[in-house]
Amino acid sequence: MRKTIVTAAGPNMAPILTAISLPSFASFAMRHSYKMQVTYVPEDDADRWSAIAKSVRWQKLRLIRSALEQSDVVVWFDADVLVCRTDIDILDSLDATNYQGLVLHSVPSENRTNPNTGVWVVKNTEKAFRFLDAALEIGMPTGR
Amino acid sequence: MRALGWILGNEHYDGARMPNSLNEFMEGTAWLPISWNQPYPERYLGRPMEPNPFAIHFMGMSLPDRMKCMREAADRYAIQGYERKDGVTGQPSKHLTLGFKVLKEVPDVLRPLADDVVACYRRHHPDLRSVFIIGSVAAGEWTEGVSDLDVVGVVDNRFTAEDEAPRRRELLELGKSWPQVSFINNSTLSLAALHAESPDAMTVGRARIIAVTGLFLWG
Prior knowledge:
The complex is a heterodimer.
Chain A: E1 3-9, H1 14-32, E2 35-40, H2 51-68, E3 73-77, E4 81-83, E5 100-107, E6 112-123, H3 126-138
Parallel strand pairs in A: 1-2, 1-3
Antiparallel strand pairs in A: 3-6, 5-6
Helix pairs in contact in A: 2-3
Chain B: E1 29-31, E2 38-39, E3 55-57, H1 63-76, H2 111-124, E4 128-134, H3 135-138, E5 149-155, H4 161-176, E6 184-190, H5 191-194, H6 201-213, E7 215-218
Parallel strand pairs in B: 2-3, 5-6
Antiparallel strand pairs in B: 4-5, 4-7
């Protein structure tokens, strides 16, 4: 099975990704036979609501989709994620009927519950491609 | 989230919640245990925390705080391959080199485009020192018609967004005429800003990217 970990960072997060996050991803990759695909994008913005920062975040979908064309499974890790345990493959959390897996973040103080795409596992299925294409076509909601 | 039919709430997701009915994309989506994407405790104080998470997500923090907290966590969880502050490395450095390689030459099909990009930089930046390709092309992961071309020019002096605008406009048009790339993502690194007493994180990060994954084009 072709399995790929995909991640990316701009100039602000690049030092953190290189020095801290990547080694943890690499340990996970080695243990569970993932290839790694790391992209350094030339621009970002510490203000997460700026147009540049939002544009960079939106590239995540394209990177995942591109990697999925060459893989059976893609696992995305945000650059500000640290993998602490490698004993279980995240893929084992999906069953045969699942085409993707995400974690729900519930923040009562901010009155919200939403899927968080900082850790995201996607299987190479027709539905996964349709989902990614649908998300790309919808585009980024105003203000987010 | 909209593709999942999620109720988004306001522009900061206040009021965001799961819809009452599942659309086709929600069906087949697995909700993983929180331990696969554990928000960093301080931001979400008061919420139940996994004592032994698979992955911690350091969201919504300033860069210095994020760096500090991630280093502490990497120390605590003894991340393999992570170089600790005391210089001790958990595993051989081979772990750090798995992620990418850098090509020695631009793919032939992109050579004319690369030459045009260099010419554009030279026209717009009299103080240009060098030009590098970074990203998927440099790493050999470029996919024709899908990937973009990431380019960074290194200049002597500081610059403003206005200074860069003419070059960006020209490269935007150049990218449209090349179906082999999705667009030309172009930026600039100022050596004056890099060598300042306290260079900003963006400048340092851009320099690191060139150092680690830069494919030399001109200079």
